[in-house]
Design a protein that fits this description.
Layout lengths: L3 E6 L2 E9 L5 E3 L4 H5 L19 E4 L4 E4 L2 E2 H7 L2 H10 L5 H12 L8 H5 L8 H15 L9 H27 L12 H10 L10 H13 L7 H10 L5 H13 L6 H14 L4 H9 L20 H17 L4 H14 L2 H5 L6 H11 L7 H22 L24
Antiparallel strand pairs: 1-2, 2-3, 4-5, 5-6
The structure holds s-citryldethia Coenzyme A.
Length: 425
Amino acid sequence: MSKTATIEIDGKKYEFPIIEGSENEEAIDIKKLRELTGIITLDPGYKNSGSCTSKITFLDGELGILRYRGYSIEDLAEKADFLETSYLLIFGELPTADQLEQFENDIRKYTLVNEEMKSIIDGFPKTAHPMGVLAALTSALTAFNPKSVNVDNEKEMYQAVCKTMGKFLVIATWTYRKSMGFPLNYYDNTKGYVENFMELMFKLPTEPYKASPIIIEALDKLFILHADHEQNCSTSTVRMVGSSHAGLFASISAGVSALWGPLHGGANQAVLEMLEEIYKNGGDTDAYLAKAKDKNDPFRLMGFGHRVYKSFDPRAQIIKKAANEVLATLGVDDPILAIAKKLEVAALEDEYFKSRNLYPNVDFYSGIIYRALGIPTDMFTVMFAIGRLPGWIAQWKEMRENKEPIGRPRQIYTGAALRDFKKPQ
Ligand code: SDX
């Protein structure tokens, strides 16, 4: 006998089924609520509302659990690589060695970006934020790939996946090259995906370049940690835009814009700017904690708090450990890391943060590693987008394969009642 929920309105009782997920999460299925009662729910920020069922990622905010297709983030970060994890998220199973090699080779078929895209990027000032350029270039890819993918055609969908994985990485690095006035690089199909990221970013035509294996390994792990996170703001945006049957590039472009916000992916850049400010002002972390707690001060402790995690973000734990290892291996002594650790200890002991379950999230330490790897601060959120790309693709693909209806929330109107049209005197 399946469980139900009863809602009583004006003395009349209505029963709604309770559905249960594979990890025992439960939801009241209110698909017929308005039809039966004429009433809707209201839930700003969707803090209590599920938008879909999904088989891709499971997280438990209370227990600090994160799994992609059932595999723990700890196992994947330690034992898999980024393309392997991307394949898992998108197609549902870990690839065999042959499948992984084929996937990487099929991505290589699409790593050449149409040369006319260069005239689009040339339209931007060097000072343009890389996330704004990336959103525009991603949408512009539609101009060169106008045929929208038939998601029911496995071959077409697979090609669209490989095309997106191939081209997005290149144009993401072009945003940096543009800001530096450097020539735009091409993907080298003889090298790996993450090694190509480093070459695309930093290789100059005037001298030989060899990316450090330590940096490649650290970045690969960081991309895995960012690869998906169920229905976060940018992923929900990708699903929403895709639900109108807009194309994959257009949907990903919308996701890039949503991720840019400082409350979401833009937080990794904001964390570094905050830590640098604290450092410049003498390292007085207590003063900044006081600002974060002051309701009259808009300042928030960036990299702290999370809509879902009300205990440690498991990714933050892994990144913190990696930050120590990478900086030690590279011999980088970054005083910002010491500020971050001091801030973390102080916040975790502070009643305001403890009572609100505010812990370091994925963005708190990632910027410290990126900085040690030579990534410029305003590229940090682009790094997040590169990592999140397979998750966006997987979620978009699942939404379309499930033939989900176009997203169209309702509202409660609180504006003016009907009034006659009179021009103001
Ligand atoms: C990401 O959703 C995802 O999965 C996102 C992400 C992913 O992988 O896709 O995990 C990536 O976006 C991580 C979050 C990065 N953002 C930041 O680090 C920005 C700083 N954090 C906050 O802005 C905030 O914590 C949010 C936006 C992340 C979550 O906010 P919520 O869930 O809407 O919580 P809230 O704003 O209602 O805050 C609850 C209370 C409030 O105080 P009271 O009104 O109860 O007195 O906690 C306070 C808030 O003022 N609070 C903070 C705080 N975060 C929440 N106070 C100071 N500093 C903070 N960082």
